[in-house]
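[SOLVED] Need 3D model of a two-part complex

Original post:
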Amino acid sequence: MTKIRTKKTDSANRRASYFAGCEKPGVFSGSAKSGGPGGPGEAGTSIKLRFALAGNANVGKSVIFNYLTKLHQHIGNWPGKTVERAEGTFHFKGYEIDVIDLPGIYSISTYSIEEVVTREYIAKEKPDVLINVVDASVLERNLFLTLQLMEFEIPMVVVLNQTDMAEKKGIFIDYEELTKALGIPVIPAVAVRGTGIYEAVEETIKVCLNKTKPVKIVYGKEIENSIGKIEKMVKKDASLKGLPARWKAIKLLEEDAEVAASMDKETVAAARKISKNIETIHDHSCPTAMACEKYAAVGNIARRVQKATIVDSPVSSRFADLLLHRIWGYPIMAGIIALVFISLFSFGNFLSGLMEGYLLYFVNAFRSIAGSGVVASTLTGFMEGMVAAVTVVVPYILPFYLILGLLEDSGYLARMAFLMDSAMHKIGLHGKAFIPMIMGFGCNVPACLGCRVMETKRERMLAIFVTSMIPCAAVTAVVLGLVAKYVSLWWAIGLYAIDLLIIFALGKIAFRVLPGESVGLIMEIPDMRVPQFRTTVREAWYKMKDFVFVAFPIIIASAVVINLMKTLGMLAPLSGALYPVTVLWLGLPSVAGIAFVFGIIRKELTLIMLASLFGTAKLAAVMTPVQMLVFTLVTMLYIPCAATIAALVKETGWKKAGFITVFKIFFAILVGGIFMRILLIFR
Amino acid sequence: MPKSYQVSTKLVRENPRESGTGHSTESENVEEYLETIYRITEKGGRPTTTAIAGELGVSAPSVSEMLRKLDNKGYLRYEPYGGAVLTAKGKAIGKTVLRKHRLMERFLIAIGISKNKVHNEACRLEHTVSKDLENAIKREIGERRVNRKGMVSLADMKPGQKGEVVSIDSGQQAKRRLEDMGLTPGAEISVSRTAPLGGPVEIRVRGSSLAIGRGMAQKIYLKVDG
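Solution:
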């Protein structure tokens, strides 16, 4: 025990001294020295508390989360849902504190999965305290969520973050006045510099122990009357236990489908009658009237506590304007994307080649020692799978996540979505889908996982379908290594064009076939800022872990299976079985079938296997240009690689993933055969 | 099958007087169902028998009977206990009728029919509006929006223009989202920029910058200052 305590005091001291260094004198006077709770040391065991971080997207929740938990965190998914769930633990003055980083949301309705998840978490798992992180420069919009969080009537604090940015924009907030207005502590902070976090934690613990609940925000008279009436009815209704009656009443007035579904029918009907009354008074639908009331309430608070002076737009904002320029925005974007990919590919190729050389040396050495029994080939398969997986992750995926993270944190990704919105609408998606599509050119796995930015299920599905067909880095390796090298660079570009055209057409068809309406773009455009390197590195690291969990098992498993097939002599019959397709329909050499099977592990293995099956790296001697083109096109289209299939299963379930996979195999064979015949005509 | 469908709706749509009353009631009923299913799907819900029954105010058994009929006619695929999925044919009709419904609602509001009566009136009218009448009404209330009431859609605003949100005409979900982001009636906004080629509009509202797709922007109506 003592040992743990010393550690805690140490870290507390370290933090205190850290703060002493960068605190502006005077600003936080009192709060750091107020002592806070003395710590529960007497009992000898640490008291456990649970904090939940909530707030809009892009307000610095994750920065605070990372700061608090350091490496003691894990990121998983909410049960049954593909929304990230980050949890961690830290020790502070003898308390053991679990923190959960809730997804960024704008409201507690049910528009997006993130909102549903947040709501369920607060209602069911009841954290001891909510830490609402608020962006000081967009106070009014942020307080809209604050108000809704307050309605859960659980202890709460507000961290007023990015006060430095706000002050640069000429926005000054009287946080003591805000504290009075909300009835809960408001702590100013600059999380990226660590300022204010120590005080925030102290205050949060105090709030936790005193169970300080936020004040009730009073709406207009007729709304309050209606809430009061419904509240009375709701109190008799036993459903949705654990949520405050006022909250349920407000949600009924907002015509929240989920709340209505879980309450008694009579209560809902009676509430509907009352809301009709509001509609006649306000001349808007009741949910709209409620949103107006809320914004009126937060508008009042914001006006009271905020002093805004107009400042000249700084150079950075003029630079941001250029990035969205009607004309210049596009070449700049193309330039940035090209730069990212060229540097990623050249770095990745260099590193992957280097690593593969060393790693395969070991594998081959092992093979020559172990011989070719069943056990030995299983082990070699395992090792080869590991090599395949590692040489993707380290040279390609990690740098890719890093650069994307930096672009995202700087605010540029949102701008790309803005610029590409109208183009993406051509295939029924909106601008946000452009980001996973771009990711797809690197690797389809993070791209599929990245489709989570899409709000509705239908759009996620569409986006995943399209991104899983984008030619990834491995496919590019085949195109460059086979077509560009032996046929011509123009044909390589041509194949890309054909592939993109096919993706476009299929996307359009899928858009028609999938039921549901296309939802347009509604997206906040964050200010451009210098990305936070530390946070980005950490995020990239966790995303990479996610990738490893999804991709590694299946890459390794398929490598083992294929190796076993080789040992058991099943490859020759297999290529025989594929003969009608590969040779008769596609006009390829019969070994191509085996190459395709290996390509399931990783697409560039098709090329590597081709060379090893022919026993020569000079493929021009054994294949005609037409064969090369057909082979490459089929490789581009025929199947998502094993890791992508795993990602598809994770995001869409077995059924849809299976459908996409089977569809693409047949589709690739069909297109490949037709392509071959067209080529032969024009030869 | 497709042929007979085309004939019947054509009669109802283009030339309501020529089709027999009994016939037209039946196709009206079909249209009403397809519209309802389309609307439920559009909102992101699942058109189950219960959901449809609730929307139309009829009993669940008669809904499932009708759904079976519609399935036979190729308007939708119906699985008992699963709900209905519109075919391309059914979807096209549902979409058209819903569009007419919304247009009629806007028209009725514009000519001063009280808000709570508008829905039922529109439900009756939507089946009999011909393409010509639809276009004429569109022109009429389109002009009203701009000239007489001084309202413009966000999509028609120029960078630098300021305005006050009056109403949002989109689906429930999108409307709720826009309201959550601060676009409530009465909110002041200014247009920062528009992307070329029908791209999104960037606006400032309540201190934040929002990008709104052009299609959505068309459904947001504002009173423009000055």
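Edit: Residues 329-682 of chain A form one domain.
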